[in-house]
Amino acid sequence: MDFNKTLIIWYSEHKRDMPWRNTKNPYYIWLSEIILQQTQITQGQPYYDAFVSKYPTVFDLANAQESDVLKLWQGLGYYSRARNLHASAKYVANELNGIFPNTYKDLLKLKGVGDYTASAIASICYNEPTAVVDGNVYRVLSRYFGIDTPINSTKGVKEFKAIATSLIDHQNPSDYNQAIMEFGAIQCKPRNPNCHTCPLNESCEALQKDRIDELPVKLKKTKVSTKYFNFIVLLSTDKQTVFQKRTNKGIWQNLYQFPLLETDEKLKTADFKKHAFIKTYFGDTPFEFSLYNNKDIVHKLSHQHLHTKFWIIEIDKLPQKSIPIADLKSYPTSILISNFIDEFFDV
Question: How is the cofactor bound (predicted)?
Answer without folding.
Answer: Binds 1 [4Fe-4S] cluster.
